[in-house]
Amino acid sequence: MEQKRCSWVNVDNALMREYHDREWGVPNHDDRKHFEFLILEAAQAGLNRSIVLNKREGYRRA
Which is deepest, 6, 13, 16, 28, by most CB within 10 Å? Predict the structure, then answer.
């Protein structure tokens, strides 16, 4: 059975699929994870989500 995904997910992009399938809409109670999402959302302003996800590891190291 094929998984249903939101229309914004580029199924050809593995990072987008993983983000959608494992993180999008999943309740989160970890402060570090909340902060990471805040930074990613701020970085995304005006950009494609896949660009930000590609830079995610760099943000984590910083």
Answer: 16
pTM score of the predicted model: 0.72
Sign of the CA dihedral running 57, 6, 29, 41: positive
CA distance 61 to 2: 35
CA distances from 48 to 1, 2, 13, 41, 59 (A): 29, 25, 12, 11, 16
Q: How far apart are CA 62 and CA 17, in angstroms?
A: 24
Closest CA to 9 of 49, 57, 56: 49
| 8 A C-beta contact, residue 35 and residue 28 | no
> Which two tokens mark 37?
């999402």
Q: Which of 39, 41, 49, 43 is nearest to 19 (CA)?
A: 49
